[in-house]
Design goal:
Blueprint (H helix, E strand, L loop, with lengths): L1 H8 L3 H16 L5 H10 L8 H19 L1 H6 L2 H5 L2 E5 L1 H9 L4 E4 L7 H8 L4 E5 L5 H11 L4 E5 L2 H12 L3 E4 L10 E6 L2 E6 L1 H9 L2 E9 L6 E7 L8 H18 L27
Parallel strand pairs: 1-9, 2-5, 2-8, 3-4, 3-5
Antiparallel strand pairs: 6-7, 8-9
Helix pairs in contact: 2-4, 3-4, 10-11
């Protein structure tokens, strides 16, 4: 299996992305809740007008979702120096360099947009980088993911208290860490905040780490360029410190994610059940929700 995957990883990126479009449609038309959730998220997002615009965005997103899966092969399995060459340019990276020069830790807030796997690999080619990691249940996939992500100066830590402590320590050493802001928080670790017009149980870790360390925070997106040309990394500084109040901080974070999604709507992970209520979390409209 690994031999076959490595052979596929050697195919040119335009070919792989073409196969990814086919894969995206195969998954979309397969039985299950994937297609319904994707349609609902796109049509309820407020990013398009019902009818032609939303159908167009949905079609584009289906193809991009397939690309996101198949491009993991070259990103994880090609030699590290070849993977870095897939980054064709950056915008705003000088803000990260300036924060490091000022002796600050760096919080990379990376929504599920484009090839977000490229962000930690690119950052880790220059500086130490610590990211949370929850391995898949299948050992083969867990080993593949670990080998693909933990390269350069990247370090993966578990998604538990020990991992949070490791990220806190990294920021105090003025290093970089990665946060996925658009995952559903576990019960007790989040608050309800609006996201694309609906309540979403939002993690509050980013604001907590920033207030404890004085780190600089940045939204970063890895845009997938057309025709398999590679990727472009976009950096958007969080200009003011996040609020100390958890509910207010969650609103700010979701607003920042929304702004990035609006720039690259077709490349967002619309199939993710972002608005679900995790077990043990209060209802969105309860006094304990925020």
């Amino acid at each position: 299996m690994m031999f076959l995957l490595k052979l596929l990883a050697r195919l040119p990126l335009p070919v792989l992305h073409g196969l990814g479009i086919v894969l995206g449609w195969l998954i979309y038309w397969s039985p299950g809740r994937h297609s319904g959730r994707m349609r609902d998220n796109v049509f309820d997002s407020g990013l398009c007008t019902p009818g032609r615009d939303c159908r167009r965005l949905l079609r584009q997103s289906i193809g991009e979702s397939g690309k996101a899966i198949i491009e993991l092969l070259p990103v994880w399995l090609r030699p590290y120096d070849q993977v870095l060459k897939l980054v064709k340019g950056t915008s705003g990276w000088e803000h990260i360099d300036a924060a490091r020069a000022a002796g600050k830790g760096v919080i990379v807030i990376a929504p599920h947009i484009g090839c977000f796997e490229m962000i930690n690999l690119y950052y880790a080619s220059q500086h130490p980088f610590t990211a949370l990691y929850k391995p898949p249940r299948k050992p083969f996939l867990a080993a593949l993911m670990l080998a693909g992500r933990q390269r350069g100066q990247a370090r993966l830590v578990p998604t538990d208290l020990s991992g949070v402590r490791a990220q806190l320590a990294a920021l105090k050493r003025h290093e970089g860490i990665g946060i996925l802001p658009d995952q559903v928080a576990s019960s007790g670790d989040g608050v309800w905040a609006p996201f694309l017009g609906r309540p979403a149980y939002t993690p509050t870790l980013t604001a907590s780490l920033q207030h404890k360390t004085g780190a600089a925070a940045f939204f970063v997106a890895a845009e997938r360029l057309s025709w398999g040309r590679g990727y472009h990394l976009h950096v958007f500084p969080v200009l003011d410190d996040l609020p100390a109040n958890k509910a207010e901080a969650a609103i700010r974070i979701n607003q920042g994610v929304e702004a990035v999604v609006r720039r690259f709507p077709a490349q967002y992970l619309w199939s993710y059940n972002r608005h679900k209520r995790p077990g043990g979390a209060p209802p969105p409209d309860s006094p304990a929700a925020g």
